[in-house]
Amino acid sequence: MAVQQHPHRHPKFHFPSPRRSAAATATESATVAATSTAAYVLAGARVLTGFVFLWAFLDKTFGLGYATGSGKGWIDGGSPTKGFLSHVAVGPLESTFHDWAGAGWADWLFLLGLLAIGLALVSGIALRLAAVAGTLMMALMWAAEWPPAKHLSDGAPSMSTNPFVDYHLIYAVVLIVLAVTAAGSTWGLGRRWARLPFVSRNGWLR
Q: What is the DSSP string of 128-152?
């Protein structure tokens, strides 16, 4: 009986393919670049959105002559809520907003909310709290304008351009996105804030 002898097969050593390595490196570099770009875009959106809230606070407090006329700011005795809420003319909360118009507690809450949200966004800290507070504020302002209505309470056209989506909802979505993506880590103090013992033990403060 003949026994066939097979040459010993030695495992072959394969050198990494230069093309494959180059492709993998290029992919990784592109991913890192895209991630970095996204982080900077979100950081820019965060700072700009923060300035929207801060400017509203400054204008309504000091009467800088834009939305709030000179001499009509909060420090001059004006009310940041009376003009807007007293003119609400549509929606299920119309009478409620009229009752709130010019109330001291409403003025304080509104202005402090604008200031706190603006500072949080610009600095990059407490974005989750800012998202919750800002979303609530935007929801109330959306309800005050009530885009679903075609007509105001007196029957006049509401001039609503969209029955659901308006800039208040866009701002709310932006706030939520900034919070869930930890956008305060770039161009902000988000990382340092998150490392504080009290904040690290209470994730809702981040």
A: HHHHHHHHHHHHHHHHHH-TT-SB-
pLDDT given at position 28: 65
Q: Does residue 126 sit in helix, strand or coil?
A: coil
- Exposure letters 105-127 (e unless 16+ CB within 10 A, then b): ebbeebbebbbbbbbbbbbbbbb
Residue type, position 30, single letter: A
* Residue 1: per-residue pLDDT: 46
Residue 72 contacts residue 63 (beta carbons within 8 Å): yes
How many CA atoms are closer than 13 Å to the CA of 112, on its beta-carbon side? 6
Interior CA angle at 127 toward 38 and 189, to 5°? 75
- Of 83, 50, 44, 78, give the one whose Cα is nearest residue 64: 78
For the chain (length 206 residues), average pLDDT per consecutive 10? 49 54 60 82 98 98 95 96 96 98 98 98 98 98 97 96 96 98 95 94 91
Contact 116, 54 (CB under 8 A): no
Cβ contacts of 48 within 8 Å, gap of 6 or more = none
- Give CA–CA dist 69/177, Å, rounded: 34
